[in-house]
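for the recovery benchmark. tokens below, seq after
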């Protein structure tokens, strides 16, 4: 399978980010808690250097709670401020404001020393497509928040949402381009639905997903699709055939419809119906780093 993002989009996204980042104090970066590394573009570290940094593990409701804790530690150890949230329900959002103050303490102190009063922290929300940026801005800023209008030095059309006395948010999120460093990254982004499904081979993707699930989330997988454990090794192809049979995915003439079974599995996974699953495990990455 070929996972790609167009170079034209990439250049435009990068230019926008550079423009916007020069205006702000704090980068709020959303990552998908199910794949916290694959859903980041590490170039943001270069773009956002000298800025305060807050990473939000979004969609934490869909990810494995134990892995969420590990990922929190992982990012903290690398000097980021970090929180786990669910932008859809608003869970975890209340903890953000105090975290922002903590992340920007140096800037706030500096302003105080210089006699600058009441200058709010300015923040931008960034992340790759589909990670939940718009949902987050809606839930964090709320619809009631007034926009502050254009300001001198701000590119025409840019709007700041004033959340309170201490914080302003740029209303348009910064789009980071996914970084397809390896095929593995592309696969994981496809699994969580960050790519256009039309270009994907569903059965191939489902088999990749099944390989991960059989490895790390075997019990919830087998129980969801009532696949009996026989003691024999179960391959992804066999597992897909079982799903096909158990969910009665047939074409006309009782021919198995693997495409349909694959789409059903991927959709169940993306909606959290198989359980809370993290595809990228912290321990595994640590081991890789240490090699
Ligand atoms: P983007 O701006 O970064 O591109 O992402 P957007 O907010 O559009 O969110 C992408 C999808 O992710 C949306 O689903 C949104 O509801 C969902 N989402 C965002 N945050 C969370 C979260 O914390 N948990 C869960 N479970 N889902 C989240 P959608 O399929 O496009 O719409 P819908 O199903 O909500 O109608």
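predicted aa per position
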């Amino acid at each position: 399978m070929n996972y790609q993002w167009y170079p034209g989009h990439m250049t435009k996204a990068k230019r926008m980010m550079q423009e916007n980042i020069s205006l702000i104090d704090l980068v709020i970066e959303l990552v998908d808690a199910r794949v916290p590394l694959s859903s980041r573009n590490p170039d943001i570290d270069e773009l956002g250097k000298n800025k305060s940094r807050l990473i939000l593990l979004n969609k934490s409701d869909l990810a494995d709670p134990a892995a969420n804790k590990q990922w929190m530690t992982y990012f903290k150890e690398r000097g980021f401020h970090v929180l786990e949230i669910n932008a859809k329900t608003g869970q975890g959002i209340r903890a953000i404001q105090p975290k922002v103050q903590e992340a920007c303490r140096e800037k706030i102190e500096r302003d105080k020393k210089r006699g600058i009063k009441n200058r709010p922290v300015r923040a931008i929300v960034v992340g790759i497509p589909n990670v939940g940026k718009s949902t987050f801005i809606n839930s964090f800023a709320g619809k009631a928040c007034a926009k502050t209008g254009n300001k001198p030095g701000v590119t025409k059309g840019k709007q700041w949402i004033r959340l309170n006395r201490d914080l302003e948010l740029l209303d348009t999120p910064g789009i980071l381009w996914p970084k397809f460093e390896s095929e593995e990254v592309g696969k994981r982004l496809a699994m969580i639905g960050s790519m256009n499904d039309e270009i994907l081979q569903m059965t191939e993707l489902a088999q990749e997903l099944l390989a991960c699930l059989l490895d790390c989330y075997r019990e919830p997988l087998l129980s969801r699709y009532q696949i009996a454990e026989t003691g024999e090794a179960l391959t992804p192809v066999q597992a897909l055939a079982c799903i096909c049979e158990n969910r009665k995915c047939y074409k006309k003439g009782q021919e198995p419809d693997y495409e349909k079974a694959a789409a059903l599995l991927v959709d169940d996974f993306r909606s959290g119906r198989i359980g809370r699953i993290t595809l990228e495990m912290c321990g595994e990455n640590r081991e890789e780093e240490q090699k």
